[in-house]
Amino acid sequence: MDAVVLAVPARPAARLLADVAPEAAKEIGGLDYASVALVTLALPAGVLPDLSGFLVPATEGLLVKAATFFTTKWGHLRRSDGLALVRASVGRYGDEEQLQRPDEDLAATVHREVSAVLGAPLPAPVAGHVQRWGGALPQYTPGHLDRVVAARSALRAAHPTLRLAGAGYDGVGIPVCVRSGETAAEGIITALEGSGR
Ligand SMILES: Cc1cc2nc3c(=O)[nH]c(=O)nc-3n(C[C@H](O)[C@H](O)[C@H](O)COP(=O)(O)OP(=O)(O)OC[C@H]3O[C@@H](n4cnc5c(N)ncnc54)[C@H](O)[C@@H]3O)c2cc1C
Predict the structure, then answer these.
(1) Residue 44's domain spans which residues?
(2) pTM of the entire structure?
């Protein structure tokens, strides 16, 4: 194989690199990830305030980190039956145990906490949906950028056409991830041109 962009999260990347580039694997293998669940509730018409949603600081001690009132925020999602859709993001770094709770339990917690934040009990939801994203959000710690530079440098020295890309290294936003992949591909093209292939 001429070239590989390794665009998997940092831990599986470290496992895949353990034999071929142990120095790089060591630099990236310690990156930790947070898990998150998205809980969507359909509520009867007319019960939500005219807001697009809210964010909750960690100091509040709630499981809900943020709530988006879909049907208020995006007009095209407004429904003919008037149902209001609320999507809450739950679980902060270290909350993994809480996310093991059954769907109904998470949905009930979201319903209770959103009611509390809004200052009035919401009516029972008409429907609910829970989607879990385990180990989805990298948690960068001091020295992260230096470790990434060191990993890439070790990898380049050992295998010039094997590159790392993705949120584990360059940032979580999708535009940044796309750019990370493009940069990896450009680096490989340059290396291949340099080698005359
Ligand atoms: C709930 C949620 C909402 C988000 N909302 C937004 C948003 O609104 N805007 C925004 O910009 N960003 C958002 N993000 C962040 C963004 O989606 C991610 O940071 C980004 O998608 C990461 O891209 P990636 O290519 O690095 O990794 P991923 O998209 O996670 O891709 C990694 C791939 O590697 C695969 N993989 C894992 N292990 C292996 C293995 N051993 N072998 C082979 N393949 C493997 C996985 O299956 C996956 O396909 C959100 C993230 C989450 C979790």
Answers:
(1) 34-138
(2) 0.87
